[in-house]
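re the bet — no i am not wrong, look at it urself. input seq straight from the record:
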Amino acid sequence: MKISISEVKANLSKFVNLAYHGQRIVILKNNVPLVDLVPHQVQTKRTLGLLEGQIECPADFNDEDDELNEMFYGSDS
């Protein structure tokens, strides 16, 4: 179903109800499709730890590199 945005403004609850019951509604402005009005789909919660055991962080990850520090901060001498 293709409906102009002005008609949707005037009858929003009607079109929301139609979309909720499975009707796909395309909202148009000057005969150009803008958006689809579709029922909300509940997102599942993200599962933490999906990559556990698949990625290895080196033991010296947080160690500072003297050469890089000198490039950024200069030498102390």
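see?? Helices lie at 5-10, 12-20, 66-73. told u. also The mean pLDDT is 89. so pay up
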